[in-house]
Write a structure and sequence with these properties.
317 residues; alpha+beta; DNA Primase, Chain A; DNA primase DNAg catalytic core, N-terminal domain; 3 domains; four-stranded antiparallel sheet; 8 helices; 21% helix
Length: 317
């Protein structure tokens, strides 16, 4: 494929009612699929629109003060966190350098013809459509067992394998309907790929597995929840660090008296913790864990005794 690249320069664009100076490279035959690039970084954006507003990930936001224009590839936070190209957004969000951002975006040039991961769907509030998973769910990649997951766990969660040796994890809604799937890649970046049209903010991963219990652990990622479940701790995952209002409502329907927030041991996890606490308020008993600094998340804690003590020593807001 021949690409025609124009000179990179500073351009003044009027976006969201303001003039922004944006540096960008124009392509005739290759575009960046910003929607999928952001979704696969666990930035939960609505689909079906080129201009959208989200909760700003750079401050404790409750009013969707961050606006994004996917067509022009720019963003602005009206609370003052910053503005510029979406490359600068990713650079700030992931704390990557410019080279790392460009390497990540290589996978998202001219991706609109990739049938499994394009997302030109319309934003709706009704129940998500059921989907059929086009992969073999009778086998899993061998590398998942190096992480100490068992065959029983893989069978319980009905996992499978992709052609590229990724772990396929089905996603079900509260009615146990298959509404999408997650591909956990072994080493590639991004680690997680989400199927077409899956609205992560409208589901709680693992919800159908939760029975009446004294507490439920709330994690960011699906493997975190699967690991906790394997060790006997009931759990659901947000599929990202930021809890949505819809997920808050789903959490309040769980048959439990307490939610234990078990988000990742990083800055993004701390922002997610503050947002979750704000959303849940006094609607239910809420606690959180402090993961020891040598572990990045609950899945990183392989010892049952250590993990049990971490959960036992939970704190209340």
């Amino acid at each position: 494929m021949t690409h025609i690249v124009f000179n990179v320069a500073q351009h003044s664009q009027t976006v969201f009612g303001r003039k922004l100076m944006v540096s960008y490279t124009a392509y005739r035959a290759a575009m960046i699929d910003w929607t999928q690039a952001l979704l696969n970084l666990n930035i939960d954006i609505p689909v079906g629109s080129d201009e959208l507003s989200i909760l700003c990930p750079f401050h404790d936001d409750t009013s969707e003060s961050c606006s994004i224009n996917l067509e022009k590839g720019v963003w602005i936070c009206f609370a003052g966190c910053g503005q510029g190209s979406l490359k600068s957004f990713i650079e700030q969000y992931k704390q990557w350098d410019f080279k790392q951002v460009n390497q990540y975006l290589v996978s998202y040039k001219d991706t609109y013809n990739k049938k499994l991961f394009i997302v030109p769907t319309t934003e709706v509030d009704e129940e998500l459509p059921m989907v059929k998973i086009p992969y073999n769910l009778g086998a899993v990649p061998r590398w998942i067992f190096d992480r100490q997951f068992t065959k029983q766990t893989m069978k319980k969660w009905n996992c499978g394998v992709s052609a590229a040796n990724g772990l396929i994890i089905p996603v079900h809604d509260k009615a146990v309907r298959t509404v999408g799937w997650i591909t956990r890649q072994e080493k590639q970046i991004p680690k997680y790929l989400y199927s077409r049209g899956l609205k992560k903010s409208h589901v709680l991963f693992g919800q159908p597995h939760v029975q009446k219990t004294n507490y439920v652990c709330v994690t960011e990622g699906p493997l975190d929840t699967m690991w906790l479940d394997q060790l006997g701790f009931p759990s659901v995952a947000l599929l990202g660090m930021s809890m949505s209002e819809k997920q808050r409502d789903l959490l309040l329907t769980l048959p439990t008296n307490e939610l234990i927030l078990c988000l990742d041991n990083d800055e993004a996890g701390q922002r997610g913790l503050k947002r979750a606490m704000s959303l849940l308020g006094n609607k239910i008993k809420v606690s959180y864990i402090n993961i020891p600094k040598e572990y990045k998340d609950v899945q990183d804690i392989k010892s049952y005794d250590i993990l049990s003590n971490v959960i036992k020593n939970k704190r209340y807001w």
